[in-house]
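Minutes, project check-in
Item: structure for the 134-residue chain
Input as provided by the requester:
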Amino acid sequence: MNLRLVDLREQYPLDLDSAPLDLYLYEPQGPLCAYPGTLQISKDLSIRHPFLRENGGFKVPWIMTTDLLLTVEQKDGRLGFLAISCKYRKDTLTPRKRQLLAIERAYWQARGVSWRLVTEDLVHPLLIATLVRT
């Protein structure tokens, strides 16, 4: 619905370690500075990073994701990102879920990317009906 939309990626993986913003995929001449990954951000926020236990009990860092990452053309013609997390309201109520959302939000803030949390409260019922119908 956005005419300035260039690309849309679902379940975009967040870097565990420091890495550049992958806007360079679209604009190779852009800066390649590294931004903190989720491991460093969770440490800075004093929030336990999510882990996955593999066979044998080894803990492996869980790769967090953002539901939608939009690449959009800005008014000045440059490209930028918009990160969107789509959650049910009930999934944002527990303290642990809020901690994970805080890591995700801080990840995008460190990169200068707008991050939005969307719940069913923010979507008009007619839009939902249209999406279901189509």
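Outcome recorded: The chain has a mean pLDDT of 86.
No further action items on this chain.
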